[in-house]
Each structure stands twice: as C-alpha cells, then as structure tokens.
Amino acid sequence: MKLEVPPQLASAVPSGMYGRILAATPVVMAVIATMLAGLASSEMTRAQYDRALAAQQQSKAGDQWSFFQAKRLRGAFQRNTAEVLGAVCEVHALDPVALRAAAAGDRELTALLDAPAAAPALGYLQRGELPPIATAPAVEPKIQAALAGLERMKSDAEMAALLAPLTDQALVAQLHAAREQTEALDSATKPVNTLADQIDARLNELASATPGSAPTGGRSVRRDFSAARLRYTALRYETEAKLNQVIANLYELQVRMSNLSAERHHARSQRFFYGMLAAQLGVIVSTFALAARQ
Q1: What is the three-class DSSP state of 130?
Q2: What's the CA gap between 250 and 176, in Å, rounded?
C-alpha cells in the first residue's frame, strides 16, 4: 500500500533535507514519547510488585519473630520452673535405674521404658542435651556482613551498600538451609518429646493414684524426672528460638532488598516519565514550527 501526501500538506513543508527532517520530527518524537510512556508504566508496575513482595516477606518475617518470642518465653518459663523446683525441694540427677525400679509392677510404664527409643531419650534427659543434628552450612561472608549491619541498625544507605553484592538466589539458598535445620531439629527431638510426655503423664497418674509411694531410695523419682524434663524442654525451646531468629533475619534482608529494588524501579519510572514529557514537548514544538513555516 502506497501512502501519498496530499498536495496541500506537501506544499506546506519546505523542500530539501530541512523539510524532510521537519516533517518527520513530530512523528519520531510521538513514537519516542509512546515508548517512554510504556517504559515508565512498566517500571512503575515492577516497583509496585516489589513493594507487594516486600510486604509478603515482612509478614513471613513477622511470623518467625512471633515464633521466636513465644519459644523464648516458653523456654524461660520451663527453666524458671526447674529452678523453683530445685529451690523448694531436693532434686537429683535423673537416675534411669531408679526410674525403672519405680516402674516395677506397672505394665504401661514398664512398656514405655522398654521401648527402643527409651534408652537414648533418657540419656538426653539425664545429660540435659538435645539429639545431634547435621551442622548447618557456613553463612556466606556477604550475607553475614549484611546480617551484622541489620543487627547494628545501619542506615538505609549503609544497608544498601551491604545488600548490593547479594543475590536473591543466595538468600533463598540460605533460607532453605535454615529451614532444613529447623525441620531436622524437630525430627530429632520428636521421639524424645513424645516419650518424655508419656512417662511424665504416667508418673503423675501413679502419684495421684497412690500418694506418697513415689519416693524411691530416699528421693522422688517423679520429681527428678520432672526437673530433667523441664531443663531439656527449656533447652529445646531456646534452640528452636535461635533457629527462628536466623530465619526472621534472612527474611528481613529479603524485605530490604525488595524495597531497594522498588525504589530503583520507581526512580527509573520517573526518569522515563520526564523523558516522555520532553518528547511530547518536542512534538508540540515541531508542530508549531511546521505551522509557523506554513
């Protein structure tokens, strides 16, 4: 299809190179203005997406901080209860032999102590230790520096410099490793927790059914077991709280990175918008130039 310019318009445009440039300028500037408008809109959309992503990540960080606070409080409560118990009465280290002697004649408690997981679980309670889990991978120095800056409450400019060399993939990998640590601890402690709860519940039932029969060898097996269980549970909650704190801090880094990305896209959107205004001004000026020439 051939486009022909009407003679009236062709006569209004001066001949020569200057005329061709003058005639093409409004069209070119209009195309540029349209492209810049699209780029400005695209950058603004990406900025809004990053802001929404930061809000979601902040919500996840808030959940982890809530877990951290709850588990720290539970751990402190368990440890304080164990200390109060030791202050008001005589508490000794857990003795598996005395515990088995107290279970004599009770089939349910004997069955619990004869379970395959009983010996290692009682060992952890006696020593006040948690089951071992795989060591967490070392944190990258760049992420460690950003976490240190976050802990010291560095300014936004300083945090931007610390976050600049980080990548989303590195943070996601670190988060995945932290979650695996939490899941590994849950899996390792679950058998011990279950058995300790069952033994403690059965000892309480026996003590309620036959008051005064709990002491064995001059001390209360039930009280010693409760104290060991309280110390073990306090340690478990404190360890879980630390893992939740690590995950929360990593989410906080993601929030900062998303906000910085949103600010960059917003600034680019503004520059494209100003370029679009300049292109539209060029369209107006060139149109007036054509009109003046005519």
Answers
A1: coil
A2: 10
pTM over 0.70: yes
Measured between alpha carbons, how far is 93 from 128 in angstroms, rounded to an integer? 10
Alpha-carbon torsion 238, 240, 109, 101, what sign? negative
Measured CA angle at 112 (ends 110, 115), to 5 deg = 110
Residues, the chain: 294
Q: What is the pLDDT of residues 263-280, one digit of tens each?
A: 999 999 999 999 999 888
Residue 9 has pLDDT above 70, yes or no: no
Query: 35 pLDDT band (50/70/90 cuts)?
Result: very high
Could you give the dihedral angle defined by the CA atoms of residues 75, 79, 84 and 87, in that order, rounded to the nearest 10 degrees? 180
d(CA 270, CA 264): 10
User: Residue 92: enclosing H or E segment and its boundaries?
Assistant: none
